[in-house]
Amino acid sequence: MTSHGLSEKIANKQAKIGVIGLGYVGLPLIRAFVRAGFKTMGFDVDQTKIDKLKAGQSYIKHIDNGAIATLIKQGQFEPTADMERLGEADCVIICVPTPLNESRDPDLSYIEGTAQSIARTLRKGQLVVLESTTHPTTTRENVLPVLNATGLKAGVDYFLAFSPEREDPGNPNFEASSIPKLVGGHDSLSADLACEMYGHAIVKVVRVSSMEIAEAAKILENTYRAVNIAMVNELKMLYDKMGIDVWEVIDAAKTKPFGFQAFYPGPGLGGHCIPIDPFYLTWLARKHGEQTRFIELAGEINTHMPHYVIARVAEFLNDVSKPIKGSKILILGAAYKKDVDDPRESPSFELMKLLLNRGAILSYNDPHVPVLPKMRHYPNLPPMQSQELTPEFLASQDCTVISTDHSAYDQSFVVQHSRLVIDTRNATKQVTLGREKIRKA
Prior knowledge:
The chain has 14 helices and 13 strands.
C-alpha cells in the first residue's frame, strides 16, 4: 500500500499543512507547524478574520500581532477564505465548531459542511484529520462517507484520522506544541501518516487503535471535568447553608498527596468544551437505548449555578434593604475563564440575562472583552461596553459580582471602593481590608 509520496513529503517537511477554522484551536496549531518548518494554509469562512491575519493582526489574546505578522512576512502562513484551494494542501486538519442545537443535540453541520468542501477538491495522497470535539463514530459516519462519495477510497487513495484538540486558552504552562496528541486512524497507513505529521510539531504523539478510541477519549477528558465541577458546585450550595467555606475545604483536601484532585466551583460552566461535550454522550446513549444519568445530573447542577448565584445576589441585596429591581449591578468578567478573551458559553451572559429579567440596571467590566459580543443564545442582551473601574464608578454600584477572576483585577481596590462584593470565584481570598463587604456565592 502506498502513501502516494505523502510520507516522504512529511519527512522532508515539504508537505503543505492546511488548517480549516482559524480560531482558538486552529491558529495555535498553524503556529506549531510553522515553528516545525512547514508551510501552512489557513482556511476560514469569516473574511474579517482573513483580512486581519493578512494585515498581521491577531484576534486571539495569547497570540500577539507580532507573531502573526512574522508568519505572514516569512511566507510560511497563507490565510484564505477560498475553500476551492483546499486541494493545494497535502494535509488538511479540521478545527471547526461543534455546538449543541436548541434541544442540546450535537450540531454537526459545520463538520459535514467542511467535509463537503474538502470532497470538492480531494485528491490522491491527501491526509484529512478531524480535530473538532465530537461524539465517537462521527469521523467514520459523518466524514468518511462524504469523502468516499468522490470515488476515492480512504486508506488507499487518501488518508483519514481523528486527533482531538486539547487547547487550554490562558494556561501559560501549555500550548499546542507541548500537549501530547492522541491519534486514531481509519486504517494503519492513515494512522502512520497522521502520527508522522504531528510528530514534527507536537512534543509527543500517542497512537490509539481507532478513530473511535480517540473520539471517546476526548469526551471522557471533558466529562471527567464536568462531573467533578458539578460535585464541588453541589457541595458549595450545601456548605453555604451550613456556614462552611467550600474553598477552604478544597484547600484542606488537596493537601493529601494522592487520591484527590482539586476542582473548583463557580457561577456556571463556560468555554467551548466542558458545558457542551458531555451532552454528546447523553445524545449517543439515547441513540443506543441507554441512559447516562450521572452525566445528565452533573449537567443539571452546572446549568443551575447561575440561578443559584442570582438567588444569593437577591439575598445579599435584601440584607441591605434593596431588591434586584432598580439596583445597579456590575458584573466583573465576561470571558468564560481567567485571563482569556473567549466569551463562548460564559456563565456571565446567563447572569446578565437573569439580572436584566429581574429589572437590574446592569453594567460590566472585562479588560479582555471591551465590547460585549453578540451571542446566539442571548440575542436580547443590549449593546454594552466595558466600564472603567474608577473609584467613583465602583462606589456608584449597589453590588459588584465577580464572575471571572482575571489577574488584571486589583481585588483589594475593587473591595475598597465597592458597596457590596459578591464573589463567585474566591477571587477576594487575599483581601484583608473591607471583608465585611464580601459575600460568597
